[in-house]
Amino acid sequence: MKIIFKLTTLIIILLYTNLFGQISIKLKDKKILGDSEVVIGNIRGICEDNNLNLYILDTKFYKIHKFSSKLKYIKSFGRKGEGPGDLIYGNSIFIYDGYLILCEKYGNISYFTLGGKFIKKVNLSKIFGVNLGKVFFAGEGTFYGELKNADNIQQAIFSLKDKKILNTYFSYKYSMTSTKINKKRVAFGIYSDIYSSGLLFSHYKNRSIFAYNKKYHLIMTQGNKVFLTIKREIPPDHISRKERVKLESGIDNFNWPDNVKKILKDQIPEVKNFFYKILLSDKYIFLFRLRKNLLDKSTLPPTEVYNFTGKFIGKIFLKEDPPLLISDKYMYFENYEDMSLQRFKYKIKCLY
Length: 352
What we know:
3 helices
């Protein structure tokens, strides 16, 4: 996508009333990154520095793009490769203590100055002797990683300073469907936000939150010490017959052997996941739920909001897909129709 800067003023007021009171959210002062002097391919992660400069991790062109607080393009740095300062499996970026930290799948961690100068690179998988999937920054000297064990995937927090695993959290068992093609065994898999098992994580300002999408159970830490647990004993929503037909038709679209398609269809469960994304801001926890009826595009999926005491304060309904980032001042959304990045000022108000 190309980048253009245009400013429009937009105010959206979303109101939800429930037994616990009311909550409203205002999104205004919309800015759009569209066509201009830099091309962005695939936004994998974004972050802000203390001056509200914006950094975008682009995994199509293997770059990190930097913009001013007014979304004026400043520079890009990085290149494809596995050497010092290179990007290959970019997963997330964070700002901490004046450095930009790039986290990549399989454990690579690279440090840059905010001007893009490469400082150093370490590999968590080699240091700890483990097999890692997704990796995120988790606070001073620590990183979140998804441990890929023999039969499960588990959340863990790694300390570079102490060279040890500090804590482990949720996990789930996994398996791959495979069949022989031309005398070779080939593995097949499909991931769906609607029903596939997945681990969820978010970090913001020394706080982290952990979840497993098939349980309504969240663990929140500060400085890597648990200070909040949210757990609700509620049943998950069922997958209706019509929804199942739609999901199965998606599998049929793949050019895979019929026996593989049948196995994957049989693996679709009876119920949906509780949520498919979680985010932290400076004051709130956001849980992004699925639509009650997946086929009804006229309805908006609910986002449940909690404060840091664990109190449920209400639901909001966003027209956009879940934000990429919720900072102190802004919400950032990716518009998949025109491949633009949208930024809103936001304000949340509890009316009780």
